[in-house]
Inverse folding.
């Protein structure tokens, strides 16, 4: 049993991708921290599957070995092909255009739980344990020592100057900091609304023979009149696979107009594939048949963004937001985990700069708190989130397809624009997040 400390410099609450990225950044800078999570162990559910070049670059700057291992765990999708149900191309995004800027000129298809597993390995390898089963239940300021005191459900107590709120979209710490989570459309606190999206994420093994319009090496999306279907091939690394991994394992996203069942079964998913999936309206291809559903879940998302990522308590302690605690949106373009990782890496750098500035001030005998360093982090990452959310919204409009002239013109215009090399390069840069990379 690892003893739980009573004080530290930084407490990271949440060991998801954002918290882990921040932990790696702090460890690289030798800043003492404690990372806690309410779960009993890392989660294992089907969520993100796409890692973008910007997250790989950010992690690679901290540990090139980690990025290399993430890449070798996954499948490199060099393109993203979208078609309509008749198999006519809607757009074909070619990531090779990024080769001049990054060695990660692809979408990395690697399930979130496996990405987190690798990140945890690297955090722990640096001698930093992850303290599971530690749910923060209350926080109070200790102004005399410029610290917060965190109380856990386990009864433990921890003091820290900085709290990193990496506790996901329902963030408790965001509430403690009094930072509202606002729907950018209604400008009201995020709640159920017309922009909510329902979708299903399932890990599916398809039967052999797999129709060739479900590629084993690239992302493929079908934009229908009733939602979208995205197939992402993934490597089978489950212990049960042994030496015989499933060849046709895919993570499949289904955009659905109605409320799906809580854990959709093979019959429900096959019906969507039969009516809207690849091959459903094509004489050339058969529809892929489901052999097995390994995991499935429904999700509902709505957009929300905080107005600031930083809260300074009167005595000079901080709550600093990263990842889903600060922004949430739909899954289009696979951006959430990616942004969270980049938030975490940048926040570690900002904390380092803030501490160094405080030390210098102390040496000079002044007590100037350079809050502007942390505010700059907040302003920059919020602007990135706003831009990404706009892009996700546009992508969601495309993915939702629909009947009538409006969607028809939108899809035709896309097909036309993506033929132009500079449009392709611009879109690849945007979606990869490289355009937002921090210049240091
Ligand atoms: C279906 C689906 C598909 C997605 N697809 C993609 C994709 O392809 N690409 C992509 O980039 N993103 C995708 N995302 C988004 C991505 O999953 C999230 O953006 C990402 O998980 C956010 O990471 P996080 O670390 O900020 O929060 P989380 O992963 O939610 O982690 C928060 C952690 O905080 C812990 N916690 C919460 N409260 C407390 C507390 N009080 N005390 C202690 N611990 C606490 C939780 O247990 C949890 O482990 C998808 C999301 C969904 C739902």
């Amino acid at each position: 049993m690892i003893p739980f400390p009573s004080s530290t410099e930084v407490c990271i609450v949440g060991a998801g991708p954002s918290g882990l990225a921040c932990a790696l950044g702090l460890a690289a800078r030798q800043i003492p921290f404690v990372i806690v999570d309410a779960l009993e162990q890392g989660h294992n559910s089907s969520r993100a599957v796409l890692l973008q070049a910007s997250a790989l670059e950010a992690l690679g700057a901290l540990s090139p070995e980690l990025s290399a291992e993430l890449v070798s765990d996954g499948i490199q999708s060099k393109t993203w092909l979208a078609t309509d149900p008749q198999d006519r191309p809607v757009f074909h995004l070619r990531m090779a255009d990024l080769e001049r800027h990054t060695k990660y000129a692809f979408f990395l298809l690697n399930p979130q739980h496996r990405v987190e597993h690798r990140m945890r390995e690297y955090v722990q390898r640096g001698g930093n344990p992850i303290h599971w089963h530690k749910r923060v239940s209350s926080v109070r300021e200790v102004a005399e020592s410029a610290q917060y005191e965190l109380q856990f459900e386990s009864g433990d107590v921890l003091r820290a100057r900085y709290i990193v709120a990496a506790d996901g979209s329902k963030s408790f710490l965001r509430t403690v900091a009094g930072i509202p989570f606002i729907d950018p459309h209604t400008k009201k606190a995020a709640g159920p609304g017309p922009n909510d999206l329902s979708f299903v994420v399932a890990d599916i093994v398809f039967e052999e023979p797999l129709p060739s319009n479900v590629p084993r090496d690239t992302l493929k999306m079908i934009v229908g009149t009733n939602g979208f279907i995205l197939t992402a091939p993934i490597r089978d690394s489950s212990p049960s696979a042994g030496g015989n991994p499933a060849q046709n394992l895919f993570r499949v996203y289904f955009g659905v107009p109605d409320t799906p069942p809580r854990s959709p079964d093979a019959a429900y998913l096959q019906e969507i594939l039969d009516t809207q999936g690849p091959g459903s309206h094509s004489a050339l291809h058969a529809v892929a048949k489901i052999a097995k559903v390994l995991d499935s879940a429904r999700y509902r998302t709505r957009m929300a963004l905080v107005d600031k990522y930083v809260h300074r308590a009167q005595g000079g302690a901080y709550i600093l937001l990263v990842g889903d605690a600060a922004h949430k949106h739909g899954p289009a373009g696979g951006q959430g985990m990616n942004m969270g990782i980049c938030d975490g890496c940048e926040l570690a750098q900002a904390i380092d700069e803030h501490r160094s500035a405080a030390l210098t001030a102390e040496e000079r005998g002044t007590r100037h708190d350079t809050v502007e360093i942390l505010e700059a982090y907040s302003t920059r990452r919020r602007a990135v989130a706003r831009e990404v959310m706009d892009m996700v919204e546009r992508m969601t409009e495309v993915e939702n397809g629909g009947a009538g002239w409006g969607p028809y013109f939108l899809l035709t215009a896309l097909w036309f624009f993506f033929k132009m090399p500079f449009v392709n390069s611009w879109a690849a840069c945007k979606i990869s997040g490289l355009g937002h990379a921090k210049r240091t």
Summary: The first strand starts at residue 7 and ends at 13. The chain has a mean pLDDT of 89. The pocket of flavin-adenine dinucleotide is lined by residues 13-19, 36-39, 47-50, 112, 135-136, 166-168, 172, 201, 299, 323-324, 331, 334-338, 340 (CB under 6 Å). The CA atoms of residues 59 and 65 lie 9 Å apart.
